[in-house]
Amino acid sequence: GKIQSNLGEWVPMQKDKISEKQIQLSMIATSKTTLDVILKAPKMTLYTLGVTFPCFLPMGCGTDLTPFDDNIVNKIHYLFSEVNAVQCSMVRDTLTTFNNRKYKTKMPLSCYQVLAQDCTIELKFMVLLKKDHASEENHINVKISDIDIDLYTEDNDVIVKVNGMEISNDNLPYQDPSGSIKIKRKGEGVSLYAPSHGLQEVYFDKESWKIKVVDWMKGQTCGLCGRADGEDRQEYRTPSGRLTKSSVSFAHSWVLPSESCRDESECLMTFESVKLEKQVIVDAEESKCYSVEPVLRCLPGCLPVRTTPITIGFHCLPVDSNLNRSEGLSSIYEKSVDLREKTEAHVACRCSEQCI
């Protein structure tokens, strides 16, 4: 490629004093599209000036560009992947997807939602978010390889846990044993970097969060942040592959539901196909209708303490038809949409001691 041929045009310089076992590579961005490259070896120093870069380089504070200070390979990897990284973010209740589409969402309490994940069979990373039931503050969980990272706030400070062990401020920056994942303080919050895993950056503070994925993950992500494919007209695609018109239904479809109110996740909600409370006339026939999109509802033995309106698609059947709840409702999600109506989704629940 063009960069490789330019890098081959080395000009030797006088010998510089460095360790006999050291090679030092420096790249200096002289503009958004050019680099000066200097390679220092034990016996000589080589350089090439004005290397033309095929796209814009990220320009900014030096500390932002070099989270991997002690690893030249990861540093270069980060710099090159930052060029075309795409970003998803949320401030208060407004989420901006990778494709730059904005929507407001009412998050359920205590249930994790998938913000972004690698949707290929490799599943290189997953970023989850839940809102704490008591404080209603955000809690981010990042899964990369065999590492589990939690980011949340406590007494106005961001707490970092790696595989359940808290990492104190004194021990930040933190780097995993492979050197490919780094966590460090950034402004008022904390940033996680793992570009070689497809995750350019996850930033988290008390008021907001943002996720950046590398260029080669475009079109391979899924979750609340979308596919990062530049196609915002199909942004509201649920895990089942169905395209919904409701931002609330889309957001709720990425919730990780619970099976029991006693689950460790503390999520008190599950998905249901709900029956439309009124009967309607479809094709001149009195009909009963069931939602073809799953709706968040409190678990058995639990009651809703907060709800949000949601407009979704319903499939209708003759009112005298038999619908086996175990078989019929499991296949109802595959049915066509006959009409769109408003119903209620549960976003906070309270359970009795007898719940199961």
Structure description:
This protein has three domains: 2-57, no CATH class; 86-234; 261-351, no CATH class. Helix content is 10%, strand content 42%. The model is unreliable at 1-16 (pLDDT under 50). It is mostly beta strands and 356 residues long. The strands form five sheets. It has an eight-stranded antiparallel β-sheet with strand order 7-6-5-18-17-16-15-14, with helices on one face. Residues 86-262 form the VWFD domain.
Which descriptors apply to this entry?
single chain, 3 domains, Vitellinogen_b-sht_shell, 10% helix, 5 helices, 7-stranded antiparallel beta sheet
Shape: elongated
Distance between the termini: 62 Å
Give the helix proportion (percent range): under 10%
Beta content comes to 35-45%
Main sheet summary: 8 strands, antiparallel
Order of helices and strands: HEEEEHHEEEEEEEEEEEEEEEHEEEEEHE
Q: Can you count the beta strands?
A: 25
Integer average pLDDT:
81
Widest sheet, order of strands: 7-6-5-18-17-16-15-14
Q: Give the radius of gyration.
A: 25 Å
Low-confidence stretches: 1-16
Counted by DSSP, the helix tally is 5
Overall tally of structural domains: 3
What is this structure, in a nutshell?
The protein has 356 residues and is mainly beta. Helix content is 10%, strand content 42%. It is built from five helices and 25 strands.
How is the secondary structure organized here?
Layout: H1 2-7, E1 11-13, E2 24-29, E3 34-40, E4 45-52, H2 62-65, H3 72-82, E5 86-91, E6 94-96, E7 102-104, E8 113-118, E9 125-131, E10 138-144, E11 147-154, E12 157-162, E13 165-167, E14 174-175, E15 182-186, E16 189-194, E17 199-204, E18 208-213, E19 221-222, H4 247-253, E20 269-272, E21 280-282, E22 285-291, E23 295-298, E24 302-318, H5 325-331, E25 339-351
Antiparallel strand pairs: 1-4, 2-3, 3-4, 5-6, 5-18, 6-7, 8-9, 8-19, 9-10, 10-11, 11-12, 12-13, 14-15, 15-16, 16-17, 17-18, 20-23, 21-22, 22-24, 24-25
